[in-house]
What does this fold into?
Amino acid sequence: MGLARLLKLSLKTWRIPNPSTISFGLRRPVADFVRLESIKNESENFGGFSPSSFCRSIHGGSIRSHAYPKTNDAAGHHIAQDTERLCKLLCAQPNSSIESSLNGASVDVSPTLVLEVLKKLSNSGVIALSFFRWAEKQKGFKYSAEGYNALIEALGKIKQFKMVWNLVNDMKSKGLLNRETFALISRRYARARKVKEAVETFEKMEKFGLQPALPDFNRLLDTLSKSGHVEKAQELFDKMEKRKFTPDIKSYTILMEGWGQEQNLLRLDEVYREMKDEGFEPDAVTYGILINANCKARRYDAAIELFHNMEANKCNPTPHIYCILIGGLGSERRLTEALDFFERSKAIGFVPEAPTYNAVVGSYCQSMRMHDAYRIVDEMRKVGVGPQTRTYDIILNHLIKARRTKEAYRVFQRMSGEGCEPTLSTYEIVVRMFCNGERVDMAMRVWDEMKAKGILPGMHMFSTLINSLSRENKFDEACQYFQEMLDMGIRPPAAMFSNLKRTLLDEGKQDMVLILAQKLEKIRTTQLIG
It folds into this structure.
């Protein structure tokens, strides 16, 4: 329903309106103080891991990370403390004057601190921009390409592209513009389904004094492929010669990976054959993509055959390939074979890394051998490679899928004590668990705990909580969180607002619908300035 129609309808019908502990080495009895109902209609997303989700991407997300100056342990600890303190202030009073909240913080505003805070604020572009403007006025502040890029990333997530290009002009005037900037802007456009603008961003590089090269073009192909636009990536690839680029093996493998993610093995094979026809022999990356694509398509025997072909062709498997096979076979409950590949990787001299251990943990979880999964977590800790947040997320997802929600909550509570602080992804899992289990009160408690630690929610987390509150007829709370979402500059999914609007109208709350619709329209049509 458009705003004009909504206004018309509203005028016609206007009405005034402490926890138990669990050791990963020793199973303990379930505590009784937290009583949870069994989760109903569990989402498949809780346990449905793709084989590659345990491992790094073949063409890793270099444009996702930000480089920043190395610091010693003491300095790094001090920056981490200041970062957490600033984020807590921003989370506690997001609607108040950010400047007055931060002025009393008494922190040294270094480029590293600014970067770390901006990365923490990546889900709230509005707050990130306000923080950046405050930081500019502080003693010790220095502009950096990394800081600008982190801010651009946050603003791109809320589709504030006009402000993004204003920042690009600032960077150019200060001599800070780099290729990373254009790569991340292209990615944000692609994620927003603005494919034309993503390509145009690449084409604008020359206008801003940067000559596009083949690595930049490959990054564009990778961005489009990973954002669900592999057809467009293939189209651009087919016209590469017009751009005076000659494809290298990475150009081909990027497309192969994209088609593999789409489970289109026919198109993947076409690109593979073209690559070979052009004289490129498959390397370990190529085999990894082929094996991963077959695992994703649940063609595990074909994946194993490719592994043996790789060995026969004197191409040594990498830890990543073992990780793919362990995760893939484990997800199919072919646990014995998964563990065999784990042992083989160790036998040839590979020291297990965190992604490989995570694949083993996931394999045990998939077969619900939780005691063995916890044993691997203990082993990770002993050898100093984890556990990571990702490790706990895997365990939580499988416990929730098995409706072992009490155990999942205890694992979550134990994380900090085990030296691994929950991240946004972990909080999303736990909040969704409680919402699906009709324990929205517990979901809100976990939400508050997250905010108290200076972690800001994203769009999906807001949607989960607001939808749950609406289902339980807690309209005031639902509207409160919806308002908070808008204040952070996050545009709600159309389906979520439609559900909330319909529920409010059914309850005769046309006035509230009108207010929310007006605010949403303002978010959609107003570009930030500053």
